[in-house]
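Order emerges. As here.
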Amino acid sequence: MTPTLVSGILLSPITAFVARLLLVFMFLGSAISKITDFAGAEAEMAHFGLNPPWLFAVGTILTQLIGGVLILLNRATWLGAGALGIFTLLTIPIAHHFWRMEGPMAQFEFYVAVEHLSVLGGMLLVAILAERMRAA
Protein backbone atom coordinates (compact mmCIF):
# COMPACT_ATOMS: atom_id res chain seq x y z
CA MET A 1 0.00 0.00 0.00
CA THR A 2 1.17 3.47 -0.71
CA PRO A 3 1.46 6.07 2.03
CA THR A 4 -1.40 7.99 0.36
CA LEU A 5 -3.68 4.96 0.56
CA VAL A 6 -2.74 4.35 4.20
CA SER A 7 -3.31 8.02 4.97
CA GLY A 8 -6.71 7.87 3.29
CA ILE A 9 -7.70 4.85 5.36
CA LEU A 10 -6.50 6.44 8.60
CA LEU A 11 -8.29 9.72 7.88
CA SER A 12 -11.56 8.03 6.92
CA PRO A 13 -14.52 8.68 9.24
CA ILE A 14 -15.44 5.00 8.79
CA THR A 15 -12.06 3.91 10.13
CA ALA A 16 -12.43 6.28 13.08
CA PHE A 17 -15.88 4.86 13.87
CA VAL A 18 -14.64 1.25 13.62
CA ALA A 19 -11.69 2.10 15.90
CA ARG A 20 -14.04 3.63 18.49
CA LEU A 21 -16.36 0.62 18.20
CA LEU A 22 -13.48 -1.79 18.79
CA LEU A 23 -12.33 0.25 21.79
CA VAL A 24 -15.74 0.17 23.49
CA PHE A 25 -16.92 -3.25 22.30
CA MET A 26 -16.04 -5.01 25.55
CA PHE A 27 -17.80 -2.35 27.64
CA LEU A 28 -20.99 -2.37 25.59
CA GLY A 29 -21.01 -6.17 25.48
CA SER A 30 -20.50 -6.37 29.22
CA ALA A 31 -23.31 -3.89 29.87
CA ILE A 32 -25.71 -5.79 27.62
CA SER A 33 -24.76 -9.05 29.32
CA LYS A 34 -25.37 -7.52 32.74
CA ILE A 35 -28.74 -6.13 31.63
CA THR A 36 -29.87 -9.50 30.28
CA ASP A 37 -28.64 -11.33 33.39
CA PHE A 38 -29.05 -8.79 36.17
CA ALA A 39 -29.01 -11.50 38.85
CA GLY A 40 -25.62 -12.59 37.51
CA ALA A 41 -24.42 -8.98 37.57
CA GLU A 42 -25.48 -8.68 41.21
CA ALA A 43 -23.75 -11.96 42.03
CA GLU A 44 -20.57 -10.68 40.38
CA MET A 45 -20.66 -7.50 42.46
CA ALA A 46 -21.30 -9.49 45.65
CA HIS A 47 -18.41 -11.80 44.76
CA PHE A 48 -16.06 -8.81 44.79
CA GLY A 49 -17.51 -7.51 48.07
CA LEU A 50 -19.35 -4.55 46.57
CA ASN A 51 -22.45 -3.67 48.59
CA PRO A 52 -25.22 -3.20 47.88
CA PRO A 53 -24.66 -5.41 44.83
CA TRP A 54 -27.68 -4.07 42.90
CA LEU A 55 -26.38 -0.50 43.16
CA PHE A 56 -22.91 -1.42 41.91
CA ALA A 57 -24.46 -3.48 39.10
CA VAL A 58 -26.58 -0.52 38.00
CA GLY A 59 -23.60 1.83 38.29
CA THR A 60 -21.45 -0.51 36.24
CA ILE A 61 -24.10 -0.87 33.54
CA LEU A 62 -24.65 2.88 33.32
CA THR A 63 -20.93 3.64 33.24
CA GLN A 64 -20.28 1.06 30.52
CA LEU A 65 -23.29 2.04 28.40
CA ILE A 66 -23.05 5.81 28.67
CA GLY A 67 -19.26 5.89 28.40
CA GLY A 68 -19.28 3.51 25.45
CA VAL A 69 -22.00 5.38 23.58
CA LEU A 70 -20.34 8.77 24.14
CA ILE A 71 -17.10 7.44 22.65
CA LEU A 72 -18.88 5.64 19.83
CA LEU A 73 -20.78 8.80 18.85
CA ASN A 74 -17.68 10.98 19.43
CA ARG A 75 -19.71 13.28 21.69
CA ALA A 76 -18.24 14.41 25.02
CA THR A 77 -15.59 11.82 24.28
CA TRP A 78 -13.44 13.09 27.13
CA LEU A 79 -16.25 12.27 29.57
CA GLY A 80 -16.90 8.78 28.20
CA ALA A 81 -13.20 7.97 28.01
CA GLY A 82 -12.58 9.39 31.46
CA ALA A 83 -15.42 7.40 33.01
CA LEU A 84 -14.39 4.15 31.33
CA GLY A 85 -10.71 4.79 32.06
CA ILE A 86 -11.33 5.33 35.76
CA PHE A 87 -13.72 2.38 35.84
CA THR A 88 -11.10 0.15 34.20
CA LEU A 89 -8.37 1.33 36.53
CA LEU A 90 -10.55 0.70 39.60
CA THR A 91 -11.22 -2.89 38.55
CA ILE A 92 -7.56 -3.74 39.11
CA PRO A 93 -7.55 -3.44 42.93
CA ILE A 94 -11.16 -4.66 43.17
CA ALA A 95 -11.13 -7.69 40.87
CA HIS A 96 -7.57 -8.37 39.69
CA HIS A 97 -5.45 -8.16 42.84
CA PHE A 98 -2.64 -10.37 41.55
CA TRP A 99 -0.32 -9.25 44.36
CA ARG A 100 -2.42 -11.28 46.82
CA MET A 101 -2.33 -14.45 44.72
CA GLU A 102 0.17 -17.15 43.87
CA GLY A 103 0.97 -19.36 40.93
CA PRO A 104 -0.84 -19.38 37.60
CA MET A 105 -3.81 -17.38 38.90
CA ALA A 106 -1.51 -14.55 40.02
CA GLN A 107 0.16 -14.54 36.62
CA PHE A 108 -3.21 -14.53 34.80
CA GLU A 109 -4.55 -11.65 36.90
CA PHE A 110 -1.30 -9.72 36.37
CA TYR A 111 -1.76 -10.02 32.60
CA VAL A 112 -5.36 -8.86 32.92
CA ALA A 113 -4.21 -5.85 34.96
CA VAL A 114 -1.59 -5.00 32.34
CA GLU A 115 -4.23 -5.28 29.60
CA HIS A 116 -6.41 -2.92 31.62
CA LEU A 117 -3.59 -0.39 31.63
CA SER A 118 -3.41 -0.71 27.84
CA VAL A 119 -7.16 -0.03 27.63
CA LEU A 120 -6.60 3.04 29.80
CA GLY A 121 -4.00 4.20 27.27
CA GLY A 122 -6.55 3.71 24.50
CA MET A 123 -9.06 5.81 26.43
CA LEU A 124 -6.51 8.59 26.81
CA LEU A 125 -5.71 8.47 23.10
CA VAL A 126 -9.34 8.60 21.98
CA ALA A 127 -9.94 11.59 24.27
CA ILE A 128 -6.78 13.35 23.01
CA LEU A 129 -7.69 12.77 19.36
CA ALA A 130 -11.28 13.92 19.85
CA GLU A 131 -10.06 17.11 21.54
CA ARG A 132 -7.55 17.78 18.76
CA MET A 133 -10.27 17.33 16.14
CA ARG A 134 -12.61 19.61 18.08
CA ALA A 135 -9.94 22.29 18.48
CA ALA A 136 -8.90 22.18 14.79
In short: The chain has a mean pLDDT of 96. The helical segments are 3-11, 13-36, 38-47, 53-73, 77-95, 103-135. The CA atoms of residues 31 and 60 lie 7 Å apart. The chain is about 85% helix and 0% strand.
